[in-house]
Amino acid sequence: MFGKKRTGDTSGFTLIEVMVVITIVGLLASFAMVPLSESRAKARDAARITTVLQIRNALAQYREQFGRYPLNYSGGDPSAPVFVAGGVAPTLPSWGACDRPLPGIAGGGVVTPGCPLCSAITLVNPLAYEASMQELVNAGFLSVIPRSNPGEPAYCYQAIDDQAYIVTTLEASIPSTRGAPGSCRPYATSNLTWCESGTPNRSHCMCVGE
């Protein structure tokens, strides 16, 4: 009757059974995190590709109206003042400028195989990038200066004569010498930087001009 304690009651889980369940749940969760992480990287890539396309269209409109692309402000362009942090002027031609140091690369510079003289001061110059993009904003072709999110690949800009390109890095892409669909890699110059490199990388480039 009531109050009588039953013997041999085997209801509940043993400690070993609980540990086994926890281990299985942990393994399943870790397997699920991999595709989730890849999905997030692909979503960030899609957002960056959209931004790069917007900048490319703005560059084409700017060129049509003003007969040139926004100037390089990191050096190498006699028509533009040089914006360099610390007031140190670069001695090399301008290889372009980025809105922030690129994550995961020593010194914050971009990977430039075959170009050991390319210094971070000309490659990673947020002030120069801001000045170039501000020209597009002032002309009404962009509403705001495009900026990358902290910890994510940067946006970089370069203009050479009658050509210009904007470049970023795709997290979820497979390193390639050809680039992702829609990219203008390989860019036909001998500088071996960013889009021109023959070394497999994840650069995504949108080019304007010849």
Number of domains: 1
Residues in helix, %: 25-40%
Report how far the terminal alpha carbons are from each other. Answer: 94 Å
Structural class by sheet pairing and helices: alpha+beta
Tell me the fraction of residues in β-strands, as a range: 5-15%
Assembly classification:
single chain
Kindly describe this structure.
With 210 residues, this protein is of the alpha+beta class. The protein has helices at 15-66, 120-123, 126-138; strands spanning 97-98, 156-160, 163-169, 203-209. It has one domain (40-209). It is 33% helix and 10% strand. The model is unreliable at 85-94 and 104-118 (pLDDT under 50).
Key words describing this protein structure:
four-stranded antiparallel sheet, about 210 residues
Brief overview:
The protein is an alpha+beta fold and 210 residues long. 33% of the residues lie in helices and 10% in strands.
SSE blueprint and pairings:
Blueprint: H1 15-66, E1 97-98, H2 120-123, H3 126-138, E2 156-160, E3 163-169, E4 203-209
Antiparallel strand pairs: 1-2, 2-3, 3-4
